[in-house]
Amino acid sequence: MSSCEGSDPFALQVLGDSMAPEFPEGSIVVAEPDGVIESGRYVIAMHNNEYIFRQLVMEGERQLLKPLNEAYPVLEMGPEDSIRAVVVQKANRRDRKRYY
């Protein structure tokens, strides 16, 4: 992602099953760095010095990164973590969907 320019939207391929069934492995997601950050939105975050794709859940001052697959843990964002982009669209072999 380092080659993306500032606020330009970018596409990523989903790896693994942590966001299944909504985002099966191989799906392509489009993310906007300047997207509106709200609880319930799907985000690309920097967590523990790694990029991660999760659903953002805000509980008061806490920001949690929730996988859709319950086999994976919910992670709490720390002060060094940040939201890098908001997912606005998904495309895979079966369907296309927008997220606002």
Short recap of the structure:
With 100 residues, this protein is mainly β. The chain has a single domain (10-98), classed as Umud Fragment, subunit A (Ribbon). It has strands spanning 10-13, 28-32, 42-47, 50-59, 62-66, 75-76, 82-91, 96-98.
Q: What would CATH call the architecture?
A: Ribbon
Range of strand content = over 45%
Distance between the termini: 22 Å
Given the structure, what is the number of helices? Answer: 0
Order of helices and strands: EEEEEEEE
- The CATH superfamily label reads Umud Fragment, subunit A
Give an overview of the whole structure:
This protein has 100 residues and is mainly beta. The chain has one domain (10-98): Ribbon (Umud Fragment, subunit A), CATH 2.10.109. It has no helices and eight strands. A hairpin with an 8-residue loop joins strand 5 and strand 6 (75-76). It is globular and about 35 Å long.
Feature tags:
Umud Fragment, subunit A; globular; mainly beta; 100 residues
SSE blueprint and pairings:
Elements: E1 10-13, E2 28-32, E3 42-47, E4 50-59, E5 62-66, E6 75-76, E7 82-91, E8 96-98
Antiparallel strand pairs: 1-2, 2-7, 3-4, 3-7, 4-5, 5-6, 7-8
